[in-house]
Amino acid sequence: MFGLGLTLVDSRRLTPTTTLPILSLFILGMCLGLPLAWQAVAGLRGKASKRFVLPAAWGLGLIILYLAALAGGQTVLSLKLAPAVTLPPFHILALALPPLLCLWGVAALAKEPQFTWRRLWGGLGGGAFGAVGLAFVIEITLLVLGLVAVVIILGASPDWVEQLRQSQLAPGGLADSPLVRSLIRNPLVIFTLLVSFSLAVPLIEETTKSLVPALAGVWQRPSVTQTFLWGVAGGAGFAVVEGLLNGSLSTEGWASVALLRIGASAMHCLTAGLTGWGWGQVWTQRRWSHLLLAYLVALALHGIWNAASIGMAVAGIALGPGTLQSALVVGAVGLLILLTLGEIIALMAIAKRLGGSNLTRQSPD
């Protein structure tokens, strides 16, 4: 909030890219940090927590709220109604609600009586603060090492340094510069980007997200359904933070980014749920092979999603307007839509199957 106060002193510095991340982090801390603290205190005092249940009307209301936030945010941007001040509330709702809706739908179908509000907040907090924080430290370290390598390579070529300086001064900036376009067209650069985003990033993020159900089983022996729901909750918390911060980088195509986060949210929830299911198999039946299989499937899904996303971005920068670029972008968007539908169907199918087994287990002989 201090940074926001400084920008308010000089209105010329007040931009959405400044206010969105600051307010997003503040609201995230309030809306997630305070319930976590409350549940922690209640747990220490020995107070029981009720099962996590939301009426269907609440879910419908959240969907309507999401659509209203999406329309409101785009209206603010299109009409230029002081978006630095008016966009943040719409941004927070539009980017945070999709993963929370995924979690609500899965929990409703799983019908796990032991999945309480305390465990819900614990899973969300573990994903939002623990998994994101750990993944950020690892990824930023690797990024710094990569930038150092690039600087060393560029420093050995004075011509590249001069081209880079001129690109920064050009009206279109680095994104539209011939140097960047030539680099992105380089097969080695494309291969490096694909490997980084499709292999390294999924390895880091799926490992950190899996820590929520993994650590939960150290102190107790939860059922498979519980660990699956803990995984989904951790994935939802991770997706909320990632969506709020990544969506703050630029307001260009804001509505498209917000819609794309539906698929990214489903992907994070599904992949974390799968590894959670795998940990449940370990804690209940010592089936480590199931955990390995679930982890590999999660890596594959995450990698394919990232490959399609980064491929769309690379095509836009490297090729420029044209038939080939349009075809690649349309293909990538189509793949992302199919993945989104498949992820949502898979999430609900797994939850319903686990919910059916719960009912069978609870019913009298």
Give me the secondary-structure topology.
Elements: H1 2-9, H2 16-44, H3 56-78, H4 83-110, H5 117-155, H6 158-169, H7 178-185, H8 187-209, H9 211-219, H10 224-246, H11 254-285, H12 288-318, H13 323-362
Structure summary:
The chain contains 13 helices and no strands. The protein has 365 residues and is mainly α.
What does this structure look like?
With 365 residues, the protein is mainly alpha-helical. It has one domain. The chain has 13 helices and no strands. Helix 8 runs antiparallel to helix 12, helix 9 runs antiparallel to helix 10 and helix 10 runs antiparallel to helix 11. The longest helix is centred in the C-terminal third of the chain and has 40 residues.
Task: Tag the structure with descriptive keywords.
mainly alpha; 365 residues; 13 helices
CA gyration radius, whole angstroms: 22 Å
Shape summary: globular
Oligomer: single chain
Helix-strand sequence: HHHHHHHHHHHHH
Largest sheet: none
Helical region count?
13
- Backbone structural class: mainly alpha
Number of strands: 0
Average pLDDT, rounded to a whole number, is 84
What gap, in angstroms, lies between the N and C termini?
59 Å
Low-confidence segments, ≥5 residues, pLDDT <50?
Answer: 1-12, 167-175
Strand content: under 5%
What percent of residues adopt helix (DSSP H or I)? over 70%
What's the structural domain tally? 1
